[in-house]
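#lab-general

N.A. 3:47 PM
ok so I finally got the sequence cleaned up, no stray characters, all 288 residues accounted for. can someone with queue access submit it? mine expired

B.Y. 3:52 PM
send it over

N.A. 3:53 PM
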Amino acid sequence: MPDTKTRPAVRLAKADEFDPEKTFECGQCFRWSRTADGVYTGVAFGRAASVWAEGETVFTDAGEDEVRALWSDYFDLKTDYKAINKEFTHSDFLRTCAEYGRGIRILNQDFWETLCSFIISQCNNIPRIKKIILTLCENFGEPVLKNGETLYTFPAAETVARLGPDDLEVLKCGYRAEYISKAARFCSNSAGDTAALRNKDAREAVRELMKLRGVGEKVANCVALFGLGKKDAFPVDVWMRRALEEFFPPGFDPLSLGPYAGLAQQYIYHYARTAARTKVNGKGEARE
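B.Y. 4:20 PM
back already:
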C-alpha cells in the first residue's frame, strides 16, 4: 500500500469508522477497483482518488481542499454511524449484522450514475456489471489521468441521451440499452430534476422512479438510497428476502427500522451475501 511517509496522503477517518473494502464491495457501487496492495481507486463526480487503510487509519491521495469539497460528503464522513448503530436493537440478528458490517458507509453518489448503474445491474452478476459500466465510460466518458493511468468519468446523461441504439451495442447489455436511453433522456431534461425527487420522502421518490421504463421496486429503492440520500429506503432482493424470512417475524415492516433503515439493510445484505458467497461458490452476485 502507499507509504504515507513518501506519498502525499490526507486522513479520512479511523479504520473502524470507514472500511474501504466493506464499503466498496457491498453492492452499492461499481467504479472502485482494488489493486493487490489493498488500494482502491475510483472516479466520482469527474474526479479520481485512491483510498486505503493503513494501520488504524484510512487515507486518500486527494488533496485537503478536494476532500472538503467532494470526498467528505461522498463518503458521508460527517454522519455518526456509531451512534446510529446503537439504535439497531430490534433483534440479535440485526446487532450481529451491524457489528459484522461495521465500517460500511452509504456513499452519496451521483443520481444519474446510480440510476444507470442499477438499471444495468438487473439480472446480472457484479463482474459483468462492472465490465458494462467500464465499457460505457471508456467509450463515452472523459479521460482522467491518475498516477500515470488513464481512467474515465461516467458519461453525462446528455451525452448518452444523444446516442442511438447502434452506439450502445458496444455495451453488449441487451434489453437494458433501451432502459439506459430512456433514463438518460429523463435525467437530461427538466423531468429529471433531482431536486424534486430529493424533496420527496423515500416512498414518494420510489414511486416516481418506478414510472421509468425498466425501473422496478428494487432498483428504485437502490437509487433512492445510494443516489438520492434516502437512508430509509430499503431495497429487497433475493438476499434480503431470505434474511427477512429467516430472521424476522412474518409481516415485518422494514421501515419500522426508522430513518436509517437503509443502513440496516446494507448491514443485513453484506452479512447474508458474504456468508452465502463463502458457503456456495465464491462469486459476488448482484442485487437481485
